[in-house]
Amino acid sequence: MKSKPVRISVCAMPFLLFLISCTATTFQAGRDIMSGRNYLLIGNPEAALPNFQSIAQSDPNYINCAVRFCVGIWTYLGRTYHELGNNQQALESLKRGKGLHGSDRFNQIYLGLVMAKMGQTREGTAELDAGLKVLGTWLSGFAGRGTTGRYWDPGGSLRKAIAETRDLLRAGSINWDRVNRDVHRLALNFEQEVRDVRTQKQDSRMRRF
């Protein structure tokens, strides 16, 4: 029995082309976000920047989520500008991403850090501390629980680092150089944790077959 050819109406063509375009854009954004994150992990923000800029231009609402960890494109862009020493552009990017995605828990952290670096010490400290508190509460809420949570922060090192950075913010004289290093290290550790959790989940699935 011969199969009948699939006919696509003229009216449906624009919608089909739109879907193809969206799929291609999403695929490219996925490649760019992976490249940008990899460059940040090896300490090369200069190489990471064009990848994040490309996504911000093509899809300003983009958010990357992996194993429960989500970061919006404006947070990645702001973080990268900050690492490059361009705090004004970092501030503009982070402010644009503020409140855009409720699951993006690093936006508030970097926004507070950049504000403090630019002289808004009181407001920046409050913003940074609030962001760290939210991040710690989020992590404590699922680490060790469920299919994904059991792989997250098994030794509690991420939660300990968050607590230690919050302690620094309560000191009479804040060591901002150390706070800056700690925040960047925390962000890198979370990125690495995503990789580790993915690997462990994949290994667990393979062992079941």
Unreliable runs: 13-24
State Rg. 20 Å
| β-strand amount | under 5%
Number of helices: 9
- CATH class designation: Mainly Alpha
Average pLDDT taken over every residue: 88
Describe this structure in words.
The protein has 209 residues and is mostly helical. The chain has helices at 13-41, 45-58, 73-83, 87-97, 107-117, 121-142, 146-149, 157-169, 176-207, and strands at residues 63-66, 69-72. It has a two-stranded antiparallel sheet. Helix 1 packs antiparallel against helix 2 and helix 3 runs antiparallel to helix 4. Residues 13-24 have low confidence and may be disordered.
Secondary structure: elements and pairs:
Blueprint: H1 13-41, H2 45-58, E1 63-66, E2 69-72, H3 73-83, H4 87-97, H5 107-117, H6 121-142, H7 146-149, H8 157-169, H9 176-207
Antiparallel strand pairs: 1-2
Helix pairs in contact: 1-2, 2-3, 3-4, 3-5, 4-5, 5-6, 5-9, 6-8, 8-9
Short description:
Helices cover 70% and strands 4% of the residues. With 209 residues, it is mainly α.
Tags for this model:
two-stranded antiparallel sheet; globular; 2 strands; Serine Threonine Protein Phosphatase 5, Tetratricopeptide repeat; single chain; mainly alpha; 209 residues; 70% helix
